[in-house]
Design goal:
The chain is 20% helix and 0% strand. The chain is mainly alpha-helical. The protein has a domain of 52 residues. It starts with 5 loop residues before the first helix and ends in a 48-residue tail after the last helix. The structure holds zinc ion (2 copies).
Amino acid sequence: MTMTKKTTTMFRRAALAAAVCSAPLVLGCEDEPVPTRPSVADANDWCEEHALPESMCAKCNPELAARFQEAGDWCSGHGQPESVCPLCHPMEPPPGMQKLPGAGEHQHDESHAEPRSEG
Ligand SMILES: [Zn+2]
Ligand SMILES: [Zn+2]
């Protein structure tokens, strides 16, 4: 395995962007794309309180809300990005993490498979 210098390039790009966008909260500044739903939940990036990736949690990162709204990935009903809304599109928590409190409060056996697939 060989190390690449990509990290350095990204660093320089970030520094350049910071220089161009001297004011941190100016609208119209070139934004990075908002995070997208990962295929598998990452234990290192998981908000156990809100049951979605921490890096996409608009409750814990309020500044993300406007960005997701702009990107058209927003559930106004629940105040989270639509693609990872813990109520509309719940993700399977990482191993060892619990599901959203209340989501599985029924004590019945839920051994049946998912009722339908996306589409
Ligand atoms: Zn959260
Ligand atoms: Zn929702």
